[in-house]
Automatic annotation (TrEMBL), chains A, B:
InterPro entries: HTH_LacI, Lambda_DNA-bd_dom_sf, Peripla_BP_I, SBP_2_dom. This is LacI family transcriptional regulator. One of its GO terms (molecular function) is transcription cis-regulatory region binding. Residues 5-59 form the HTH lacI-type domain. The keyword Ribonucleoprotein does not apply. Pfam families: LacI, Peripla_BP_4. SUPFAM superfamilies: lambda repressor-like DNA-binding domains, Periplasmic binding protein-like I. Keywords: DNA-binding, Repressor, Transcription, Transcription regulation. Transmembrane segments: none annotated.
Amino acid sequence: MINGVNAKDVAKLAGVSQSSVSRVFFGGTPVSEKTRNKVLSAAEELGYNPNEFARSLITKKTRIIGLVMKGVENPFYPQVLKEFTTAFKKLGYSILFVQTNNEEIQKEDIDMLLNYNVAGIIITDAMLSLKVTNDIKKSKIPLVLFNRKAEKNDFLSVCTNNLDASRQIANFLHQKGCSNMVYISGDRNTSTSRDREQGFIETLDKHQVEYKIYESDYSYEGGYQTAKSIVLKGEIPSAFFVANDIMAMGVLDALRKHSIEVPLATKVVGFDNIAMTNWPIYNLTTWEQPISKMVEKTVNYVMEEIDNYTGIAGNIEIEGQLIERSTT
Amino acid sequence: MINGVNAKDVAKLAGVSQSSVSRVFFGGTPVSEKTRNKVLSAAEELGYNPNEFARSLITKKTRIIGLVMKGVENPFYPQVLKEFTTAFKKLGYSILFVQTNNEEIQKEDIDMLLNYNVAGIIITDAMLSLKVTNDIKKSKIPLVLFNRKAEKNDFLSVCTNNLDASRQIANFLHQKGCSNMVYISGDRNTSTSRDREQGFIETLDKHQVEYKIYESDYSYEGGYQTAKSIVLKGEIPSAFFVANDIMAMGVLDALRKHSIEVPLATKVVGFDNIAMTNWPIYNLTTWEQPISKMVEKTVNYVMEEIDNYTGIAGNIEIEGQLIERSTT
């Protein structure tokens, strides 16, 4: 449509119906080879370039996936964005990127995605209000919550198995002989932080190990300040389990600032296995989130739902693994 | 269009022409208030929800900006993505995100953007072939190279003033008494790395200060390995100017690994002022790229060109500033 040539012009020059032109470019009942050839030569002659919008009006489908993301400051999420973009590109789909600064996704963001008639929606680190949930359900657009559990089983969620991960981390630190521990939480209204907390403390309870819980916010600064206040109170535990890597790096820097040696005086475990945890200055023991597998499951689900919408909901949990480095 | 109701249905129920319906929803010659009311009540009754695709077929314009990005591993770029998304959102525009893994943008990526009839294109850290350049010029879609200079003045480029920045950095280190220096380059086929190198060495030449140039790749690992090899050769200079922050952090970690004290034994200056440079473990002296101003200039240009395409090209350079921290 860029040059103003449309299907009607092509049909006229080819001496066929407009419906034949549509069927050649957008599918539907097949046309004869003769008709197809006529259409293609006319299209070439006129420079007809059917765009996605024309296509979508006929097929009622777009090849756009809306991706809603909050925290690009945490390197975990740019990595997730990259993997989704690459995976969907292979399937001929593009990413409409929505940045939200709110914990809860605003109705206007979802309205925009519905307005573009996106084929699917993926939300990484934000929450949906009931109103927005209903709008999406009505539109029959598949939606996946990535790295967040669905609150009411409204949608499909794809996570690593956070409960199992934090149980294994608790057992690992217990076996290392840590006798009192600290859990530094992320935003406590996120399912990821709650699950990591639950698995950790129920395992420590079982082993009768003491612990304290400090609330933080999934940011480097949050981890740094929380650890600093713990150090200043002189309450250094034998181990910290920190709800994500970027906070754990803040914890390590605060401990280093106060000359507290890791892993001798205390141990630190993070969560995510972002690339920076492997930097020699951190070399952080952490839990690897299997991003590629999580992305693959999400993409498969979205593509299946695009083909045949069922609205099926539930939680898919994928096993991760402990990456032992020098902070334990 | 989601529910299958179209402008024709609305026109029929309202008893007005289809053109009136278009003009109510998509602009053009105004309609009378009476007609407008008829159209709106019919639209409401039928649940008519004109989507962006329908809109774009009539107005021949979309409200999508294509953003092409390569290196999301460098936190500078997720920050740029966030600022562009926020700025365009305020203007009612959305971001179609394209991730390229190649130095040179592939024709298929640009074809996809043209296919979506995007209103504008922004490219952050990749290059355009001549073929692709011609396709974009022909489409009359405004394009901005962000943080890269245009090779042949084909397009508008928006950068910080890299030459001036590196001259000031050279003067600053010279005044600190550094008598031999090292420049660690980024990808040497990028304009940013070349300009930073040029400004730096021409100023050192003027002051008759010795220097060596090492080629690296804008990655943390590249900075780490380059500094490590310099240390192992025993050729530690009195200062390092490193072409971006993420590499400079690698340099700092390599120096720390070999117990070389910064800023006593050597000094380090980075470039970008990404958030991490302020982390206490790095506290890196660097050059602040004025991202917000660069984004503002880019957005203004794109919006003006959308209104009235001129295809004007050239380089806009915005002054940044030195941020002195503890590595100098």
